[in-house]
Amino acid sequence: MKPAGKLSNRARPSSKRLRRPRRRGFRGFNVSKGAADARRDAAGRIGAVAERRSRTWASRVAVLGILGVFLWCGGMLARRVILPAFVRTALAETGRVEETLECKALVVWEGVTITSPASGKVELLAKEGEKVRVDQPLFTVINPDLEKELKARLREKTEEREKFSSRYVPRIHELEAAFQDAKADVAAAVDGLRQALRGQDEEAVRRARKALDQAFKEHDEIEAEMKRLDSEMRRLSEEEKRVKDMLSSSRHVITSPTTGTVTFQVDEPGSRVVADDLENIRPDVVFRSDNRRRSVKMGDVVRAGDAVCEVFDDSKAYLVFAIKEGTCRDLVNKSRMGLIVRGEDPDDAIEVIPRFTGGTSGDGYVAFVAETGEGTRLLHEDKVIDATLITDVHEGVVVPITALCERKGEQGVFVMKKTTARFLPVTVKGKDSRRAVVEGIEPGSEVVLTPRLVEDGQELYR
């Protein structure tokens, strides 16, 4: 038997079960000393973080500094090497600049239009552009020699009309009957469509509309055919009547009623403009579609009243321009201008003298009338000419238009002073689409043609 008060190994509690958990790190631990160490550790960690941050910012600042240096170097390289390669210059020179206006002009002569007194074949007795005197023969209208030809033509035209009429009359009767039937079909189709719409039957409505479309189509086709036949019948009748009128005339010799220059380029009927009526002329006449001249040649057949020639005073001509109202006010005050006819030598400019303004149009155009006393030979052929009107001429120092620029609201140019670009204010006296006359710089100055690429005082090493 075991002694009392002692437990056997089996009855003794296990040391693992009864042992309290060890508090690691606290055995024999001094509280004040541990707190100080903890503070030092925390301070060390904070310092390490701050040191890392400061190194990061330092590296960023260094990168930005290096980048700024590169940008500065690149800017200097661009300003000194790359930019000058794109800067273009030119020398200012002494010259003249013409302010111009592209326009159309109606040519009006002071003269007499001579018409044929009878129908017949024309035989010209004067040459185009010839100076003629009073009572000088101009042309002859011959009828006796033409009679046989005209009779044959009349028979031909009559047979053609009668042959057409033999088919025309029955066909017209057929078309008129078909036209009445088509009208009845249209009326029936309209009634059918109304009934279908009232019945609200979609299929019935569709059929009714189809029937109506077909009825209208047949109606329009018949009507167009009738109009075509009527037009052809009228044409044949008119041609036959024209030949009959020619047969009733006789031989006539026409002489000039005045001195002047003769032309066989005549205005179309109803399009003639008389010099005495220019004060009230409207600008629309410049753009009329019938502003053409008809050329009368030897052997042409004319009718009584047809214009054959004109005798005019070629010492002066009137020009009618259609000009915008704002521009016209400036032109009327000028003493004289120049005119270059398109297709002619620019050196052959015609001097024109502004006279007065005529009527206006609804779109802001004004009829501007000028007179010319020289170079009229260039105006004989065409009734309406395409021309360039030289409104003003300026002489002085000429620079390309691209050299002009503005700095602080002041107009000027950049002038190269050795390697430095200097902005000099100038006064523009006149310009066209390419060049300008300026005051403020000397001839021979080197001006910059690309002012957007430079600044005042900029050095350009080229």
Task: Give an account of the 3D structure.
The protein is an alpha+beta fold and 462 residues long. 37% of the residues lie in helices and 30% in strands. The chain is built from five helices and 23 strands. Helix 3 (144-199) packs antiparallel against helix 4 (202-247). The relative contact order is 0.15.
Bin the helical content: 25-40%
Ranges with pLDDT <50 over ≥5 residues?
A: 1-18, 25-29
Total of helices: 5
Oligomer: single chain
Features:
37% helix, conserved putative lor/sdh protein from methanococcus maripaludis s2 fold, 6-stranded antiparallel β-barrel, alpha+beta, 5 helices, disordered N terminus
Q: Which SSEs are present, and which pair or pack?
A:
Layout: H1 15-18, H2 31-86, E1 89-91, E2 93-108, E3 111-115, E4 120-124, E5 131-132, E6 137-142, H3 144-199, H4 202-247, E7 252-255, E8 260-263, E9 265-267, E10 293-295, E11 301-302, E12 307-312, E13 317-324, H5 325-332, E14 337-341, E15 350-360, E16 365-372, E17 384-400, E18 405-407, E19 410-417, E20 420-425, E21 427-431, E22 435-439, E23 446-448
Antiparallel strand pairs: 1-23, 2-13, 2-17, 3-12, 4-6, 4-11, 5-8, 6-7, 8-12, 9-10, 13-16, 14-15, 14-17, 15-16, 17-22, 18-19, 19-20, 21-22
